[in-house]
Amino acid sequence: MKKWLYLCLVLPLFLVNCDGCSERTLPTVPSFDQLDKKAVRDSWLGGGSPGNVGVVIHTPGYEQGSNEYKNQMEATRQLQQAGCIGWVRFDASYGGNENSNWYYKKARELGLSIFTIITLEDLETHGWNDTIDYFARNYPSSMAFEIAGEITNTDPSINPTGTMDPKTYMTKLKAMYAYAMQNHPELRGRITSAPTFGSGTGGAKELQTFFENGLFDLDGIIVAINVYTDTALVNYANVLNNPKFAQKLARHEVWVTECGQIGTTQQIAFMESVFSRLRSMLHARNIFWYSMYDANDANAYGLIYGISDENFTPRPLFAALIDSTQGTSAAQTPNTPLIVNPPGIDPAIRHPHSDGADENGIDRSRRKER
């Protein structure tokens, strides 16, 4: 009897604690024609408004007249007109890229809020204070700035000057933030921390280190995280809901600055499974889907495909979001066939971060489209 009682008490705890031990199997979604498009849109918005959802457009720099620029911003316009996004996140660089000006201009014309990521490379190369000066002066239309990307990501295309440990990052961030509040007080409530790593257990450990090294001391700072897997989500929830952080966290917003899924047939299931939990478990105010497009790579994350073609090809999640308010998707024209499962896609493939993790649960795999 005692043994049975012990199992009754312990087994449920084990099952709860192991929720993130393996990646959740995504449900099978109906065929596109049978999809409830409004339900897809409702899941995307998660009970919030378009003003709480955005898309990531990486490295905007194509010329204004190019197919790439036209397709990226036309797809963005369609999502905005369908009431599905209120934000767009752009890359930017110290010294600028004249082509990126067209992206910022178009986003402003659409009435979108702009979120700009400042790279660790720029911060380290030009100095943290000089860099925030530059962006505050030259990107006044940006409503928020992300101070570096994933600082522990060893992919040289993301951090070409090297990575940074969380404690060193916090020392530099606190000094820069104090400088910014003194010289650019308008940036209060518009600066986010670096997003923590999006898979495994490493991101949650980084986040806890941020908290323990003074992130909450920065009045108005926004807490940024990336989420690509169930394991990451569950481990983030353990940190964010820890009683020792809860009172201080209540004074700060949490933004999921990247969240996405590789493979066209799994994007809808992933979004429906994850978005609601980002809000309920992580208290996320804003969520950014990674990404709007990919570099013509069939095995990637984009909501659309083939941006160098005359007309882009929508993937099912994009088409469902547009259909949810229009009945017939503006993206589904004879020149832009719906791509269901292009060659090379394995429906079971998840974000590359979920494979090949190191001893800390962190995968350093490269993201091909970056």
Walk me through this protein's architecture.
The protein is α/β, with parallel strands linked by helices and 370 residues long. The protein has one domain: TIM Barrel (Alpha-Beta Barrel), CATH 3.20.20.80. It is built from twelve helices and ten strands. An eight-stranded parallel sheet has the order 5-4-3-2-1-8-7-6. Strands 9-10 form a two-stranded antiparallel sheet. Helix 11 links the parallel strand 7 and strand 8. Helix 2 runs parallel beside helix 11, helix 8 packs parallel to helix 9 and helix 9 packs parallel to helix 11. The N terminus and C terminus are likely disordered.
Give a quick rundown of the structure.
This protein is an alpha/beta fold and 370 residues long. 39% of the residues lie in helices and 12% in strands. This is Asl1-like glycosyl hydrolase catalytic domain-containing protein.
Low-confidence stretches: 1-22, 327-370
What is the top-level CATH class?
A: Alpha Beta
Shape: globular
Portion of residues in helices? Answer: 25-40%
As for the CATH topology, it is TIM Barrel
Largest sheet: 8 strands, parallel
Individual helix count: 12
Under the CATH scheme, the architecture is Alpha-Beta Barrel
Q: How many strand elements?
A: 10
Order of adjacent strands in the largest pleated sheet:
5-4-3-2-1-8-7-6
